[in-house]
Design a protein that fits this description.
The protein is α/β, with parallel strands linked by helices. The protein folds into 2 domains: 260 residues, Rossmann fold, CATH 3.40.50; 199 residues, Rossmann fold (3-Layer(aba) Sandwich). The chain has 18 helices and 20 strands. Strand 1, helix 1 and strand 2 form a beta-alpha-beta unit. The two termini are 22 Å apart. The structure holds adenosine-5'-diphosphate. The site of adenosine-5'-diphosphate (ADP) has 17 residues, from helix 1, strand 15, strand 16 and helix 12.
Length: 477
Amino acid sequence: MKIRGRVLSVASECVPLIKTGGLADVVGALPAALRPFGWEMRVLLPAYRRLRGHLGAMREVWREPGLWGGEGVVFAGAVDGVDVLLLDAPHLFDRDGGPYSGAGGDFGDNAQRFAALSWVGARMAREGVDGWKADVLHAHDWQAGFASAYLTYGGSGGVGSVITVHNIAFQGWADAGMIDTLRLPREAFHPGHLEYYGGLSSLKAGLVTADRITTVSPTYAAELMRPEFGMGLQGVITARAAVVSGILNGVDTDLWSPEAEPVPFGVKAMKGKAANRAALCAEFGMAEPAGPLAIVVSRLTDQKGIDLLPAVVPDFVAAGGALIVLGSGDPALEGAMRGLEARYPGKVVVRIGYDEALSHRLFSGADAVLVPSRFEPCGLTQMYGLRYGAVPVVAAVGGLADTVIHASPAAMAAGVATGVQFHPTDAVAFGQALRQLGALFADRKAWAQVQRNAMSHPVGWETSAADYAALYDGLRK
Ligand code: ADP
Protein backbone atom coordinates (compact mmCIF):
# COMPACT_ATOMS: atom_id res chain seq x y z
CA MET A 1 0.00 0.00 0.00
CA LYS A 2 1.38 3.38 -1.01
CA ILE A 3 1.64 5.83 1.87
CA ARG A 4 -0.52 8.88 1.24
CA GLY A 5 0.54 10.69 4.36
CA ARG A 6 1.41 10.59 8.03
CA VAL A 7 -0.56 11.72 11.04
CA LEU A 8 0.76 12.35 14.53
CA SER A 9 -2.13 11.71 16.90
CA VAL A 10 -1.68 13.47 20.26
CA ALA A 11 -3.84 12.13 23.05
CA SER A 12 -3.99 11.33 26.74
CA GLU A 13 -5.57 7.88 26.36
CA CYS A 14 -5.29 4.99 23.93
CA VAL A 15 -6.67 1.47 24.05
CA PRO A 16 -5.20 -0.94 25.07
CA LEU A 17 -2.67 1.10 27.05
CA ILE A 18 -4.76 3.50 29.09
CA LYS A 19 -8.46 4.21 29.11
CA THR A 20 -11.00 6.15 31.11
CA GLY A 21 -13.61 6.59 28.36
CA GLY A 22 -14.56 6.41 24.72
CA LEU A 23 -11.72 8.74 23.71
CA ALA A 24 -9.30 5.87 24.32
CA ASP A 25 -11.24 3.52 22.07
CA VAL A 26 -11.15 5.99 19.19
CA VAL A 27 -7.48 6.86 19.52
CA GLY A 28 -6.57 3.18 19.69
CA ALA A 29 -8.75 2.15 16.75
CA LEU A 30 -7.84 4.86 14.26
CA PRO A 31 -4.32 3.71 13.31
CA ALA A 32 -5.46 0.32 12.02
CA ALA A 33 -8.63 1.75 10.49
CA LEU A 34 -6.66 4.33 8.52
CA ARG A 35 -4.02 1.96 7.21
CA PRO A 36 -6.14 0.72 4.27
CA PHE A 37 -6.54 4.33 3.20
CA GLY A 38 -2.79 4.90 3.04
CA TRP A 39 -2.58 7.08 6.14
CA GLU A 40 0.08 6.10 8.64
CA MET A 41 -0.58 7.14 12.23
CA ARG A 42 1.57 7.31 15.32
CA VAL A 43 0.12 8.10 18.72
CA LEU A 44 1.91 10.30 21.24
CA LEU A 45 0.91 9.56 24.83
CA PRO A 46 2.27 10.39 28.27
CA ALA A 47 4.25 7.58 29.87
CA TYR A 48 2.05 7.33 32.96
CA ARG A 49 3.43 5.20 35.79
CA ARG A 50 1.60 2.10 34.61
CA LEU A 51 2.96 2.52 31.05
CA ARG A 52 6.61 2.93 32.01
CA GLY A 53 7.09 -0.81 31.96
CA HIS A 54 6.89 -0.66 28.16
CA LEU A 55 9.82 1.76 27.83
CA GLY A 56 12.51 -0.89 28.15
CA ALA A 57 11.43 -2.51 24.89
CA MET A 58 11.28 0.81 23.03
CA ARG A 59 13.77 3.12 21.30
CA GLU A 60 14.63 6.60 22.51
CA VAL A 61 13.84 9.05 19.67
CA TRP A 62 13.60 12.53 21.21
CA ARG A 63 14.89 14.54 24.12
CA GLU A 64 13.15 17.66 25.33
CA PRO A 65 15.02 19.54 28.04
CA GLY A 66 13.24 22.17 30.13
CA LEU A 67 9.84 20.51 30.05
CA TRP A 68 8.11 22.21 32.94
CA GLY A 69 10.58 21.23 35.60
CA GLY A 70 12.50 18.33 34.13
CA GLU A 71 13.51 16.57 30.97
CA GLY A 72 11.15 14.71 28.66
CA VAL A 73 12.34 11.69 26.70
CA VAL A 74 10.23 10.17 23.95
CA PHE A 75 10.39 6.45 23.25
CA ALA A 76 9.03 4.83 20.09
CA GLY A 77 7.75 1.31 19.61
CA ALA A 78 4.77 -0.80 18.74
CA VAL A 79 2.46 -1.88 21.53
CA ASP A 80 -0.31 -4.29 20.57
CA GLY A 81 -0.08 -3.24 16.94
CA VAL A 82 -0.25 0.50 17.61
CA ASP A 83 2.83 2.62 16.81
CA VAL A 84 3.19 4.68 19.93
CA LEU A 85 5.47 7.44 21.09
CA LEU A 86 5.59 7.57 24.88
CA LEU A 87 6.63 10.84 26.51
CA ASP A 88 8.55 9.90 29.62
CA ALA A 89 8.67 12.86 31.98
CA PRO A 90 8.59 11.35 35.47
CA HIS A 91 8.17 14.72 37.18
CA LEU A 92 4.84 15.09 35.33
CA PHE A 93 3.52 11.59 34.72
CA ASP A 94 5.10 9.05 37.06
CA ARG A 95 2.40 9.22 39.72
CA ASP A 96 -0.13 7.08 41.51
CA GLY A 97 -3.69 7.33 40.30
CA GLY A 98 -5.35 7.88 36.95
CA PRO A 99 -4.27 10.06 34.05
CA TYR A 100 -5.80 13.22 35.51
CA SER A 101 -6.23 12.69 39.22
CA GLY A 102 -4.87 10.94 42.27
CA ALA A 103 -6.16 10.27 45.76
CA GLY A 104 -6.37 14.02 46.39
CA GLY A 105 -8.50 14.79 43.32
CA ASP A 106 -7.40 16.39 40.05
CA PHE A 107 -3.67 17.03 39.83
CA GLY A 108 -2.98 20.72 40.43
CA ASP A 109 -0.56 20.91 37.51
CA ASN A 110 -2.75 19.33 34.81
CA ALA A 111 -2.38 22.46 32.67
CA GLN A 112 1.41 22.07 32.62
CA ARG A 113 1.29 18.27 32.28
CA PHE A 114 -0.79 18.36 29.14
CA ALA A 115 0.85 21.52 27.83
CA ALA A 116 4.04 19.43 27.95
CA LEU A 117 2.42 16.66 25.92
CA SER A 118 1.12 19.21 23.41
CA TRP A 119 4.44 21.04 23.25
CA VAL A 120 6.41 17.90 22.44
CA GLY A 121 3.72 16.85 19.94
CA ALA A 122 3.89 20.17 18.11
CA ARG A 123 7.70 20.11 18.05
CA MET A 124 7.91 16.55 16.74
CA ALA A 125 5.24 17.22 14.12
CA ARG A 126 7.00 20.36 12.95
CA GLU A 127 10.53 18.94 12.90
CA GLY A 128 9.99 15.26 12.27
CA VAL A 129 11.02 12.48 14.61
CA ASP A 130 12.80 9.21 14.07
CA GLY A 131 12.99 9.85 10.31
CA TRP A 132 9.22 10.27 10.27
CA LYS A 133 7.64 13.61 9.30
CA ALA A 134 3.95 14.19 9.94
CA ASP A 135 1.71 15.86 7.39
CA VAL A 136 -1.05 16.33 9.94
CA LEU A 137 -1.22 16.71 13.70
CA HIS A 138 -4.46 15.29 15.11
CA ALA A 139 -5.18 16.56 18.62
CA HIS A 140 -7.79 15.00 20.88
CA ASP A 141 -9.77 16.98 23.45
CA TRP A 142 -8.47 19.56 25.93
CA GLN A 143 -5.42 17.49 26.79
CA ALA A 144 -3.95 18.17 23.33
CA GLY A 145 -5.65 21.52 22.73
CA PHE A 146 -2.45 23.54 23.00
CA ALA A 147 -0.72 21.51 20.28
CA SER A 148 -2.24 23.41 17.38
CA ALA A 149 -1.75 26.66 19.33
CA TYR A 150 1.98 25.92 19.53
CA LEU A 151 2.00 25.24 15.78
CA THR A 152 0.11 28.46 15.08
CA TYR A 153 2.22 30.70 17.31
CA GLY A 154 5.55 28.94 16.87
CA GLY A 155 5.45 27.98 13.20
CA SER A 156 3.62 25.05 11.70
CA GLY A 157 6.43 23.67 9.56
CA GLY A 158 3.84 22.85 6.93
CA VAL A 159 1.88 20.59 9.25
CA GLY A 160 -1.91 20.72 9.02
CA SER A 161 -3.90 20.39 12.22
CA VAL A 162 -7.21 19.04 13.36
CA ILE A 163 -8.74 18.88 16.81
CA THR A 164 -11.43 16.39 17.68
CA VAL A 165 -13.89 17.16 20.46
CA HIS A 166 -14.84 13.94 22.20
CA ASN A 167 -16.62 15.70 25.05
CA ILE A 168 -16.95 19.48 25.37
CA ALA A 169 -17.65 19.25 29.09
CA PHE A 170 -13.93 19.07 29.79
CA GLN A 171 -12.28 22.32 28.73
CA GLY A 172 -8.82 22.47 30.28
CA TRP A 173 -9.18 25.61 32.36
CA ALA A 174 -6.12 27.60 33.51
CA ASP A 175 -5.71 31.02 35.14
CA ALA A 176 -4.88 33.93 32.86
CA GLY A 177 -1.67 34.43 34.85
CA MET A 178 -0.38 31.11 33.47
CA ILE A 179 -0.04 32.44 29.93
CA ASP A 180 3.76 32.87 30.09
CA THR A 181 4.21 29.61 31.95
CA LEU A 182 2.22 27.83 29.29
CA ARG A 183 4.45 29.38 26.60
CA LEU A 184 1.64 31.19 24.89
CA PRO A 185 1.93 34.73 23.47
CA ARG A 186 0.40 37.49 25.58
CA GLU A 187 -0.73 39.36 22.47
CA ALA A 188 -3.05 36.44 21.69
CA PHE A 189 -4.88 36.96 25.00
CA HIS A 190 -8.11 38.37 23.63
CA PRO A 191 -11.55 36.85 23.13
CA GLY A 192 -10.94 36.07 19.44
CA HIS A 193 -8.00 33.87 20.43
CA LEU A 194 -6.88 32.56 23.79
CA GLU A 195 -8.92 34.47 26.35
CA TYR A 196 -11.82 32.45 27.76
CA TYR A 197 -14.08 34.08 30.34
CA GLY A 198 -11.09 35.87 31.79
CA GLY A 199 -8.84 32.83 31.82
CA LEU A 200 -7.40 30.23 29.50
CA SER A 201 -8.83 27.01 28.14
CA SER A 202 -6.68 24.55 26.27
CA LEU A 203 -9.75 23.29 24.44
CA LYS A 204 -10.65 26.77 23.24
CA ALA A 205 -7.02 27.29 22.20
CA GLY A 206 -7.32 24.20 20.04
CA LEU A 207 -10.67 25.24 18.63
CA VAL A 208 -9.42 28.64 17.49
CA THR A 209 -6.06 27.52 16.13
CA ALA A 210 -6.62 24.11 14.49
CA ASP A 211 -7.20 24.09 10.74
CA ARG A 212 -10.19 21.80 11.17
CA ILE A 213 -12.53 20.87 14.01
CA THR A 214 -14.26 17.55 14.17
CA THR A 215 -16.48 15.95 16.69
CA VAL A 216 -17.69 12.41 16.96
CA SER A 217 -21.14 12.60 15.42
CA PRO A 218 -22.97 14.90 12.99
CA THR A 219 -25.73 15.66 15.50
CA TYR A 220 -23.22 16.60 18.22
CA ALA A 221 -21.46 18.89 15.71
CA ALA A 222 -24.72 20.79 15.23
CA GLU A 223 -25.60 20.66 18.95
CA LEU A 224 -22.25 22.19 19.91
CA MET A 225 -23.28 25.43 18.25
CA ARG A 226 -26.21 25.74 20.68
CA PRO A 227 -25.93 27.05 24.25
CA GLU A 228 -27.55 23.95 25.83
CA PHE A 229 -24.74 21.76 24.51
CA GLY A 230 -21.81 24.10 23.74
CA MET A 231 -21.09 24.72 27.43
CA GLY A 232 -19.71 28.19 26.80
CA LEU A 233 -17.86 27.32 23.60
CA GLN A 234 -20.90 27.49 21.28
CA GLY A 235 -19.87 30.92 19.96
CA VAL A 236 -16.31 29.81 19.26
CA ILE A 237 -17.53 26.78 17.35
CA THR A 238 -20.23 28.67 15.48
CA ALA A 239 -17.66 31.22 14.34
CA ARG A 240 -15.71 28.37 12.78
CA ALA A 241 -18.72 26.49 11.42
CA ALA A 242 -17.14 26.30 7.96
CA VAL A 243 -14.41 23.93 9.22
CA VAL A 244 -16.53 21.93 11.67
CA SER A 245 -17.72 18.43 10.84
CA GLY A 246 -19.00 15.36 12.66
CA ILE A 247 -17.53 11.92 12.00
CA LEU A 248 -19.11 9.03 13.88
CA ASN A 249 -16.93 6.72 15.88
CA GLY A 250 -16.83 3.11 14.91
CA VAL A 251 -16.31 0.16 17.19
CA ASP A 252 -13.62 -2.50 16.99
CA THR A 253 -15.65 -5.28 15.42
CA ASP A 254 -12.96 -7.89 16.11
CA LEU A 255 -13.00 -7.14 19.82
CA TRP A 256 -16.79 -6.72 19.87
CA SER A 257 -17.99 -9.71 17.96
CA PRO A 258 -20.92 -11.93 18.99
CA GLU A 259 -19.35 -14.71 16.92
CA ALA A 260 -16.30 -14.63 19.20
CA GLU A 261 -18.09 -14.76 22.56
CA PRO A 262 -17.95 -17.93 24.70
CA VAL A 263 -21.36 -19.00 23.38
CA PRO A 264 -21.18 -17.53 19.88
CA PHE A 265 -24.21 -16.15 18.14
CA GLY A 266 -25.06 -14.11 15.09
CA VAL A 267 -27.90 -12.67 13.16
CA LYS A 268 -28.67 -16.09 11.66
CA ALA A 269 -27.97 -18.07 14.83
CA MET A 270 -29.74 -16.53 17.78
CA LYS A 271 -29.83 -19.68 19.92
CA GLY A 272 -26.49 -18.69 21.39
CA LYS A 273 -27.96 -15.42 22.55
CA ALA A 274 -30.65 -17.26 24.49
CA ALA A 275 -27.98 -19.42 26.13
CA ASN A 276 -26.01 -16.31 27.08
CA ARG A 277 -29.14 -14.75 28.55
CA ALA A 278 -29.77 -17.81 30.68
CA ALA A 279 -26.13 -17.95 31.79
CA LEU A 280 -26.15 -14.28 32.71
CA CYS A 281 -29.26 -14.64 34.84
CA ALA A 282 -27.77 -17.70 36.51
CA GLU A 283 -24.52 -15.82 37.17
CA PHE A 284 -26.45 -13.12 39.02
CA GLY A 285 -28.97 -15.38 40.72
CA MET A 286 -31.92 -13.99 38.81
CA ALA A 287 -34.83 -15.89 37.35
CA GLU A 288 -35.03 -15.25 33.62
CA PRO A 289 -37.49 -12.36 33.27
CA ALA A 290 -40.63 -12.67 31.16
CA GLY A 291 -40.00 -9.17 29.85
CA PRO A 292 -36.79 -7.67 28.50
CA LEU A 293 -33.49 -8.14 30.32
CA ALA A 294 -31.96 -4.66 30.11
CA ILE A 295 -28.44 -3.52 30.94
CA VAL A 296 -26.66 -0.27 31.67
CA VAL A 297 -22.87 -0.18 31.18
CA SER A 298 -21.77 3.32 31.95
CA ARG A 299 -20.00 5.90 33.97
CA LEU A 300 -22.52 6.73 36.68
CA THR A 301 -22.85 10.46 36.15
CA ASP A 302 -25.52 13.06 35.48
CA GLN A 303 -24.44 13.24 31.84
CA LYS A 304 -25.53 9.65 31.42
CA GLY A 305 -29.00 10.26 32.92
CA ILE A 306 -28.44 7.55 35.53
CA ASP A 307 -30.45 9.61 38.03
CA LEU A 308 -33.57 8.83 35.96
CA LEU A 309 -33.39 5.10 36.62
CA PRO A 310 -35.02 5.13 40.08
CA ALA A 311 -38.06 6.83 38.52
CA VAL A 312 -38.56 4.36 35.67
CA VAL A 313 -37.35 1.04 37.07
CA PRO A 314 -40.42 0.32 39.28
CA ASP A 315 -42.81 0.23 36.29
CA PHE A 316 -40.27 -1.58 34.12
CA VAL A 317 -39.84 -4.32 36.71
CA ALA A 318 -43.58 -4.49 37.42
CA ALA A 319 -44.13 -5.08 33.70
CA GLY A 320 -41.81 -8.09 33.77
CA GLY A 321 -38.44 -6.51 32.94
CA ALA A 322 -35.14 -6.93 34.74
CA LEU A 323 -32.05 -4.75 34.88
CA ILE A 324 -28.33 -5.23 35.40
CA VAL A 325 -26.24 -2.10 35.97
CA LEU A 326 -22.45 -2.09 35.61
CA GLY A 327 -20.71 1.16 36.32
CA SER A 328 -18.99 3.46 38.72
CA GLY A 329 -18.76 7.16 39.30
CA ASP A 330 -20.74 9.64 41.37
CA PRO A 331 -21.08 8.17 44.90
CA ALA A 332 -24.67 9.43 45.19
CA LEU A 333 -25.63 7.62 42.00
CA GLU A 334 -23.77 4.49 43.09
CA GLY A 335 -25.87 4.65 46.26
CA ALA A 336 -29.08 5.13 44.30
CA MET A 337 -28.25 2.08 42.18
CA ARG A 338 -27.55 0.01 45.29
CA GLY A 339 -30.89 1.20 46.63
CA LEU A 340 -32.67 -0.12 43.54
CA GLU A 341 -30.92 -3.45 43.91
CA ALA A 342 -32.02 -3.72 47.52
CA ARG A 343 -35.60 -2.80 46.63
CA TYR A 344 -35.92 -5.25 43.74
CA PRO A 345 -33.98 -8.37 44.69
CA GLY A 346 -33.64 -10.77 41.79
CA LYS A 347 -34.93 -8.09 39.40
CA VAL A 348 -32.24 -5.45 39.61
CA VAL A 349 -28.56 -6.33 39.96
CA VAL A 350 -25.88 -3.68 40.40
CA ARG A 351 -22.15 -4.13 40.03
CA ILE A 352 -20.13 -1.08 41.00
CA GLY A 353 -16.80 -1.12 39.23
CA TYR A 354 -15.20 -1.29 35.83
CA ASP A 355 -15.17 -4.73 34.25
CA GLU A 356 -14.53 -5.15 30.54
CA ALA A 357 -15.05 -8.95 30.55
CA LEU A 358 -18.37 -8.64 32.38
CA SER A 359 -19.49 -5.97 29.92
CA HIS A 360 -19.03 -8.50 27.10
CA ARG A 361 -21.17 -11.04 28.93
CA LEU A 362 -23.80 -8.39 29.56
CA PHE A 363 -24.11 -7.40 25.91
CA SER A 364 -24.08 -11.07 24.90
CA GLY A 365 -27.01 -11.93 27.12
CA ALA A 366 -29.08 -8.75 27.27
CA ASP A 367 -32.20 -7.97 25.27
CA ALA A 368 -31.72 -4.22 25.55
CA VAL A 369 -29.17 -1.60 26.56
CA LEU A 370 -30.39 1.64 28.12
CA VAL A 371 -28.58 4.90 27.33
CA PRO A 372 -30.61 7.82 28.74
CA SER A 373 -27.86 10.45 28.29
CA ARG A 374 -28.50 14.18 28.58
CA PHE A 375 -25.78 14.69 26.00
CA GLU A 376 -23.74 12.09 24.19
CA PRO A 377 -21.02 13.12 21.73
CA CYS A 378 -21.10 9.70 20.07
CA GLY A 379 -21.56 6.92 22.57
CA LEU A 380 -20.22 3.42 22.14
CA THR A 381 -22.50 1.27 24.22
CA GLN A 382 -25.49 1.74 21.92
CA MET A 383 -23.28 0.46 19.10
CA TYR A 384 -22.20 -2.60 21.08
CA GLY A 385 -25.92 -3.05 21.72
CA LEU A 386 -26.69 -2.94 18.01
CA ARG A 387 -23.98 -5.44 17.21
CA TYR A 388 -25.01 -7.84 19.97
CA GLY A 389 -28.75 -7.59 19.42
CA ALA A 390 -29.17 -5.80 22.76
CA VAL A 391 -31.69 -3.37 21.35
CA PRO A 392 -30.69 0.20 22.28
CA VAL A 393 -33.14 2.44 24.12
CA VAL A 394 -31.55 5.86 23.82
CA ALA A 395 -32.13 9.54 24.41
CA ALA A 396 -32.30 11.28 21.03
CA VAL A 397 -29.14 13.34 21.46
CA GLY A 398 -25.75 13.47 19.74
CA GLY A 399 -24.43 10.22 18.37
CA LEU A 400 -27.31 8.29 19.91
CA ALA A 401 -29.67 10.09 17.53
CA ASP A 402 -27.35 9.33 14.61
CA THR A 403 -26.84 5.61 15.20
CA VAL A 404 -30.22 4.26 16.28
CA ILE A 405 -33.26 4.12 13.99
CA HIS A 406 -36.33 4.68 16.14
CA ALA A 407 -39.06 2.06 15.96
CA SER A 408 -41.71 4.50 14.75
CA PRO A 409 -44.71 3.02 12.93
CA ALA A 410 -43.15 4.15 9.64
CA ALA A 411 -39.77 2.59 10.42
CA MET A 412 -41.46 -0.63 11.53
CA ALA A 413 -43.53 -0.73 8.36
CA ALA A 414 -40.40 -0.12 6.27
CA GLY A 415 -38.56 -2.80 8.26
CA VAL A 416 -35.61 -0.58 9.21
CA ALA A 417 -35.99 0.11 12.95
CA THR A 418 -33.04 -0.76 15.18
CA GLY A 419 -34.08 0.56 18.57
CA VAL A 420 -36.11 3.07 20.56
CA GLN A 421 -35.35 6.76 20.90
CA PHE A 422 -36.91 9.18 23.34
CA HIS A 423 -36.92 12.92 23.83
CA PRO A 424 -36.50 14.90 25.99
CA THR A 425 -34.17 13.20 28.46
CA ASP A 426 -36.61 12.94 31.36
CA ALA A 427 -38.35 10.21 33.32
CA VAL A 428 -41.67 10.59 31.49
CA ALA A 429 -40.19 10.08 28.01
CA PHE A 430 -37.81 7.38 29.28
CA GLY A 431 -40.67 5.52 30.95
CA GLN A 432 -42.69 5.69 27.75
CA ALA A 433 -39.71 4.33 25.78
CA LEU A 434 -39.44 1.39 28.19
CA ARG A 435 -43.12 0.63 27.72
CA GLN A 436 -42.53 0.64 23.98
CA LEU A 437 -39.59 -1.70 24.47
CA GLY A 438 -41.79 -4.04 26.48
CA ALA A 439 -44.46 -4.03 23.78
CA LEU A 440 -41.90 -4.71 21.05
CA PHE A 441 -40.38 -7.52 23.06
CA ALA A 442 -43.79 -9.12 23.53
CA ASP A 443 -44.42 -9.12 19.77
CA ARG A 444 -42.09 -11.92 18.68
CA LYS A 445 -42.13 -11.02 14.99
CA ALA A 446 -41.53 -7.33 15.53
CA TRP A 447 -38.83 -8.08 18.07
CA ALA A 448 -37.01 -10.47 15.76
CA GLN A 449 -37.11 -7.87 13.03
CA VAL A 450 -35.69 -5.08 15.21
CA GLN A 451 -33.02 -7.35 16.63
CA ARG A 452 -32.03 -8.52 13.16
CA ASN A 453 -31.87 -4.95 11.84
CA ALA A 454 -29.79 -3.88 14.83
CA MET A 455 -27.28 -6.68 14.33
CA SER A 456 -26.99 -5.94 10.61
CA HIS A 457 -26.40 -2.22 11.13
CA PRO A 458 -22.77 -1.40 10.23
CA VAL A 459 -20.91 -0.13 13.29
CA GLY A 460 -17.31 -0.74 12.18
CA TRP A 461 -14.74 1.88 11.30
CA GLU A 462 -14.81 1.63 7.49
CA THR A 463 -17.02 4.63 6.71
CA SER A 464 -15.60 6.84 9.41
CA ALA A 465 -12.00 6.01 8.54
CA ALA A 466 -12.72 7.03 4.94
CA ASP A 467 -14.06 10.34 6.26
CA TYR A 468 -10.94 10.94 8.36
CA ALA A 469 -8.71 10.04 5.41
CA ALA A 470 -10.56 12.57 3.24
CA LEU A 471 -10.17 15.17 5.99
CA TYR A 472 -6.42 14.55 6.20
CA ASP A 473 -6.16 14.64 2.39
CA GLY A 474 -7.61 18.14 2.53
CA LEU A 475 -5.04 19.21 5.12
CA ARG A 476 -1.90 18.17 3.30
CA LYS A 477 0.01 21.39 2.70
P1 ADP B 1 -17.93 7.90 27.73
O1 ADP B 1 -16.67 7.95 26.95
O2 ADP B 1 -18.67 9.19 27.82
O3 ADP B 1 -17.77 7.25 29.08
P2 ADP B 1 -18.82 6.01 25.68
O4 ADP B 1 -20.10 5.26 25.52
O5 ADP B 1 -18.35 6.80 24.50
O6 ADP B 1 -18.99 6.94 26.97
O7 ADP B 1 -17.66 5.02 26.06
C1 ADP B 1 -17.65 4.34 27.27
C2 ADP B 1 -16.79 3.11 27.14
O8 ADP B 1 -16.44 2.62 28.42
C3 ADP B 1 -17.50 1.97 26.45
O9 ADP B 1 -16.52 1.19 25.81
C4 ADP B 1 -18.15 1.24 27.65
O10 ADP B 1 -18.46 -0.10 27.36
C5 ADP B 1 -17.06 1.34 28.65
N1 ADP B 1 -17.49 1.29 30.04
C6 ADP B 1 -18.07 2.28 30.76
N2 ADP B 1 -18.26 1.88 32.03
C7 ADP B 1 -17.84 0.62 32.12
C8 ADP B 1 -17.77 -0.34 33.19
N3 ADP B 1 -18.18 -0.05 34.41
N4 ADP B 1 -17.22 -1.55 32.92
C9 ADP B 1 -16.79 -1.84 31.68
N5 ADP B 1 -16.82 -0.98 30.65
C10 ADP B 1 -17.33 0.22 30.85
